[in-house]
Design goal:
The chain is an alpha+beta fold. Helix content is 26%, strand content 20%.
Length: 148
Amino acid sequence: MKLIICGTCSRRLDVYVDASGVRDIHPPSYVADHEPVPVEAPDGWRGHCDFCFSDEPVAVLPTNDFPVPHMPASLSRGDWAACGMCSTLIGADRWERLVKRSVRKTADHHEVPVDVALLVSTIALFAALRENIRGPLRPLAEEAGSDG
Ligand SMILES: [Zn+2]
Ligand SMILES: [Zn+2]
């Protein structure tokens, strides 16, 4: 499966489906200040952590595609990448901390206070994600290995 990212912010894009067809959109917990520019990710692309959107991923959480809560017709696509800190929190089952970290990082990025609506939607998003985890965190190798 090819990975679609935004050419402007280098974030992984989700799929949005409505009557007019399929579109690529920014992930629901990332508040973008620009329109997504779908491009195919280059080989070896790692981008950003899908949980906190800040650091480079060191592991991947195998995840089924799932509908995003509060965003009808929106679909989370593929595995979720996690940076070192987020991997640690996931491994320790500290999902409340993970939600706080994600919301805090988003607020910091936009230099705004933490938004309650974003907090609520992130809690719901991560709860839905947890029901669709297919297996344990898989560390990303330095060099591209054979994938499963
Ligand atoms: Zn973007
Ligand atoms: Zn992270």
